[in-house]
Amino acid sequence: MSLIIRQKRGALQLSINAIVVLILAITMLGLGLNFMNKMFGGNLQALEDVSGEMEKNMRDRLKDSSNDLELSKDEIEIKAPAEEIIYFGARNVDTQEENYAFNITCDESVYDGSTDIANNPKVVPDYDIPGSDSVVLPIIIEATSSDKGHMFPCRLLAEADSGDINNTATFFIIVK
Q1: Which domain, by its residues, includes 168?
Q2: Residue 125, domain CATH
Q3: DSSP category for residue 130
Q4: Residue 95 C-alpha from the chain's centroid
Q5: Cα–Cα distance for residue pair 7/165, rounded to 1 Å
Q6: d(Cα 14, Cα 17) in Å, to the nearest integer?
Q7: Do 52 and 85 belong together in one domain?
Q8: pTM for this model (two decimals)
Q9: Tens digit of pLDDT for each residue in 128-158?
Q10: Rounded distance, CA 67 to CA 72, Å?
């Protein structure tokens, strides 16, 4: 009879230990998730601050420039395979809202002239810019392994629907 009581006490002790371990595990998981949220949540806020600062800088550069099209970088170095985002600012000098068509073309590699970039950079195809205002928009550049070791000259063209305003900005994509 005492053997049965010992087995029941042992099973009860094992259940209590399992419950304590489970509570500790859930607590540690909660603390870990809270820590990760604080770490990466702060980084996202910093990224938003950088994006806002980038937009402000691009708008300031457009105000100070005689160009109506400005790039955040003229030379983009990217390690393949990867994706990078750069920004450009476009200014509407007209007093009326104008729809602009944006297009990017890249020439053959400067180094050997035989290779085109696998994926042309992507940009918003068209955008309405209010009169006497400017916008900052992204350009997404994707480099593949086949692009390694090449430098591609590219042009960003902004053309107003009225046909009166055409602007071009040149930049280089260097794939390492």
Answers
A1: 68-175
A2: 2.60.40.10
A3: -
A4: 32
A5: 89
A6: 5
A7: no
A8: 0.68
A9: 999 889 898 889 898 888 888 899 999 999 9
A10: 13
